[in-house]
Structure of Transcriptional regulator, AsnC family:
Amino acid sequence: MQLFTAMDKIDDHILHELAHDGRISNLDLAERVGLSPSACLRRVAALERTGVIAGYRAVLNRTALGVGFTAYVTVGLNTHTKASQEAFERAMSRAPEVVECHNITGAVEYLLRVEAADLTAYKSFHTDVLGTLPQVHAITSYVVMGSPKDERA
Amino acid sequence: MQLFTAMDKIDDHILHELAHDGRISNLDLAERVGLSPSACLRRVAALERTGVIAGYRAVLNRTALGVGFTAYVTVGLNTHTKASQEAFERAMSRAPEVVECHNITGAVEYLLRVEAADLTAYKSFHTDVLGTLPQVHAITSYVVMGSPKDERA
DNA sequence: GGTGAAACGTAGGCCGT
DNA sequence: ACGGCCTACGTTTCACC
């Protein structure tokens, strides 16, 4: 990854279009940013090579896939050793319900985004996964009722 | 969107591959899931039409783009009227630093994900945007130090 | 950065199961 | 109703200007 990449207005435009529609054809993209297809493709290839574009993903509609329950969960550990952090993070990696795990500043160490089919499925995760980890000290759940903005969806 | 869609193993496989690489060609995808290209394309088209696949996006490397500071911010409003909620949500829609805005249960109403260039840029957002909104009552910031898991990145 | 042409992939009609 | 085959059409990709 390159921390310093010379970016101009056109690169910004390209990234904006690709972030919005990752499957736009190079022809359409070139037209939108006002470049010839080959010049546009060269820029996109450079952005991919330098890691500015990390990849492309299909955005799945979770509710259509049976995910009806989303919560943010703060987790505090009882010991702050590297070993206990690594053990906790490994457990989160393995848990399919955990979509995000962030190490944050503040009263507790971790913030999770958890997606489950419903409240019952969430309770299983809460009890059988989080509840059984010896490092876990405090758990607080914040149920998502709606997301008026979610650019990462 | 269709809440009940008959999904089999192959559809799951297709979604998994597209979630991983949204730009895989239909030819490669067909081979991976063990279908002919036309049959595969028909399934993908159906998944798009029913809304299971909501779209495609390029994943941008934020650090390469100058985003060096990420925080989760809880926001409490002083009035719980529909009008004040809508005003707040409109302000969040306009703010480019706000990447996510979730309406949550608990002591406060909103959880934001905020991405800024650095702490200075974040302070501007905190003071000039959040601080000037009349509806905002309580603000608490949790700085992200790392994300051991982030499947939505 | 633009042009052109060959290689490649897509998309849709058609048929078999 | 769903998968496979074939083909016209569009797109990508590359050497060259």
Remarks:
- DSSP finds five helices and five strands in chain B.
- The radius of gyration of chain B is 20 Å.
- The CA atoms of residues 15 and 136 of chain B lie 40 Å apart.
